Amino acid sequence: MKHDLTHWLPTTRKEMELRGWDSLDVILLSGDAYVDHPSFGVAVIGRLLEAEGLRVGIIPQPDWHGDLRDFKRLGRPRLFFGISPGCMDSMVNKYTAARRLRSEDAYSPDGRHDMRPEYPTIVYTQCLRQLFPDVPIVLGGIEASLRRLSHYDYWQDRFLPSILCLCDADVIAYGMGEKNDAEMARRLLALIEEYDETLSYDEDGAPCASRATFRKALLSPDPQRQTGMVFAKDEALPRIDDQAPIRLHSFPECINDLRQQAENFKHIEEESNRMYAAILVQETNGKQVVVFPPYPPLTTGELDHSFDLPYTRLPHPKYQGKRIPAFDMIKFSVNCHRGCFGGCSFCTISAHQGKFIMSRSKESIVREVKEVTKMDGFKGYLSDLGGPSANMYQMRGRNKKACEACRRPSCIHPNICPNLNADHRPLLDVYHAVDALPAIKKSFIGSGVRYDLLLHPYKDQDLAHAASDYTAELIRNHVSGRLKVAPEHTSDRVLELMRKPSFSLYRRFKQVFDNQCRRERLNQQIIPYFISSHPGCTEEDMAELAVITRELGLHLEQVQDFTPTPMTLATEAWATGYHPYTLEPVFSARSPRDKQAQRLFFFWYKPEEQRRIIDELHRIGRADLVAKLVGPTGAPQGSRRKR
Q: What is the rounded radius of gyration, in angstroms, for the C-alpha atoms of the chain?
């Protein structure tokens, strides 16, 4: 099939010429293949800047070897280079928790592993600095966002300073980036129109932003929100709303005393999730890393604008005939909202997207669904109509002033906040509108569901009925054979550290699910997710988890060994040995042997693992569990698969 290349943002000089462009305002570099779809961050930022009237180009997966010709491909941008290492952290994308190479890179053509370097944010910045020493560089995407202050790097097994101190970039635009990048562009354009004295000029004599121009734009008339920058040690720091900054323990102090690193994280997490946050400052090797507070959450109109841009929803034609696994997974899915107020200790969603839910309008969602129905290969089934947590759509605090003062990282742990309006009716309305479309046979919910929101004993009877109606609707019409939920563990002590509800709630939800499936003769399964080696979890906890799930008839498939990733509470506890909020010591299985021993209990039903399981149970003094797991003779009992 022949495509009109002007429907995508240009990736080559030839594609620029097809649009009649001889230069660009912004050039974005991506560690992922270029898929022009609202689920791919670099496409979103590119389309948003295009909507601002800018000429934007994308260099996907540039070759960082040799003469760096890919980095020169589109020339010098008038405003800045933007670097996005990809939709996932590059190291999580490449390696398992055991530091083994994954089977494929889901965001590269044909799943190839050699299309991006490790830590592309740093590598791409180094390449650009060699070629364009005075052009501003903006770091974006999850890799830089979660490394904006000192952090633990699991892959190097050490603490590192802000990523701004590891590469010569000008600023981090943390979070999702729409407001950050558009505002940067507007500020720079204003200085260019004024012919500011800090400007540079290209070979044709046209004014361009220099690094000095860029810094001036970011700080005047007041600091730009949702950015991170480096200042000299003695430099006076600007303020926002005349609010005093929070000074964190310095990076050298954190290295020398990990308790101080843990203490820092409490402030970092709280300020990341506040409606009106403070400036954070951390001294690092003679410099000050300054993180300015985030913008308020996007309005429905702003989020609709982002999703309603003219995406082709397809990979660039250069990949024709090649498979991009991540695109295959999401091409027939639609995202309804952004953010998550669950605050799970191992999750980065709220650190990157925020805890306040930003929801699209029903009209915008339906418009996108209609576009999906026109795509080649669509057969009437939406693979997912969801979000980070599927059933948080349009949920918010009743009293906005209470939310503005709130410091809680979670709205539902340890208990559901009484100010939370957890009304499922707006989401039911979306489901009904989508399912009423003639081209839709079924819309499935592939995202995880928070069953604690469904089973909560609401005092408001309207909310209680809505939760019950949603549960019935979900099970009856939106399960594609398997419903994913995430109890994560069975131990209430470990679940408390995870900020997850008691396992008793999972038992209740499974009973509701099984009863409805039985009544309506639905051949459906509930698939629970579990984590091993989470901070606070011992081998004994995992052995008991195995016994409990075996008694429930579960042969666990969706299991995960805890992977420490920057800017999560669990990672800070795992790496420092202290809980960031209590500063009390926390045990973690850190060695490969200890981590493997915990994961082993997931697979009690595999004959080849039973001898090792028996040996481990004897070693930890829980021989009483042998018969419950593998039977008195070592043969599994009641091993017929059911869930």
A: 25
For residue 614, being part of any structural domain is answered with yes
Give per-residue pLDDT as tens, 613-642: 999 999 999 999 999 998 765 544 444 443
For 223-233, the pLDDT digits (tens) are: 999 999 999 99
Q: Is the pLDDT of residue 557 over 80?
A: no
CA 58 – CA 565 distance, rounded (Å): 28
Q: Name 435's Cβ contacts closer than 8 Å, sequence gap at least 6.
A: 442, 443, 477
Please, what's the largest Cα pairwise distance for the chain? 84
Are 171 and 213 in contact, with CB atoms under 8 Å apart? Answer: no
SS3 487: strand
Q: Is the pLDDT of residue 259 over 80?
A: yes
Task: Specify if 546 maps to a domain.
Answer: yes
Q: Using DSSP bridges, classify how beta strands 420-421 and 396-397 pair: parallel, antiparallel or unpaired.
A: antiparallel
CATH number, domain at 575?
Answer: 3.30.750
Q: Where a domain ends, among 156, 186, 220?
A: 220
Q: Residue 239 has which token pair?
A: 């303020």
Segment 301-330 shows an average pLDDT of: 96
* Phi (first) and psi of residue 542, to 5 degrees: -70, -35
Identify whether 599 is part of a domain.
Answer: yes
Please state the pTM of the whole predicted model: 0.94
- Residues 496-519: tens digit of each pLDDT: 999 999 999 999 999 999 999 999
* Identity at 400, one-letter amino acid code: K
Bridge-partner residues for 139, per DSSP? 83, 172
Report the candidate in 56, 62, 63 with the shortest Cα–Cα distance to residue 36.
56
Task: Give the structural domain span for 559.
Answer: 511-643
Using CA atoms, how far apart are residues 252 and 414, in angstroms rounded to an integer?
Answer: 34
Question: What pLDDT does 449 receive?
Answer: 95
Rounded CA separation 130/30 (Å): 18
Task: Decide: helix, strand or coil at residue 125.
Answer: helix
| Torsion, Cα of 434, 520, 474, 342 (10° steps) | -170
Q: Is residue 260 part of a domain?
A: no
pLDDT at residue number 555: 82
3-state DSSP of 26-61: EEEEECCCCEECCCCHHHHHHHHHHHCCCCEEEEEC
Would you give the distance in Å from CA 460 to the centre of its chain?
33
Helix (H, G, I), strand (E, B) or coil at 554: coil
pLDDT for position 583: 97
The span from the CA of 251 to the CA of 287, in Å, is 10
> What span, in angstroms and rounded, lies between the C-alpha atoms of 277 and 174?
14
Whole-angstrom distance, CA of residue 182 vs CA of residue 187: 9
Q: Is the pLDDT of residue 436 over 50?
A: yes
Specify the number of domains making up the chain: 2
Sign of CA dihedral 31, 53, 300, 80: positive
The whole-angstrom distance between residue 334's C-alpha and the CA centroid of its chain comes to: 16
List the beta strands (DSSP E) in 214-286: 227-232, 246-247, 280-284
Q: What is the pLDDT of residues 110-129, one digit of tens each?
A: 999 999 999 999 999 999 99
Percent of the chain with pLDDT over 90: 92
**pLDDT score of 643:** 37
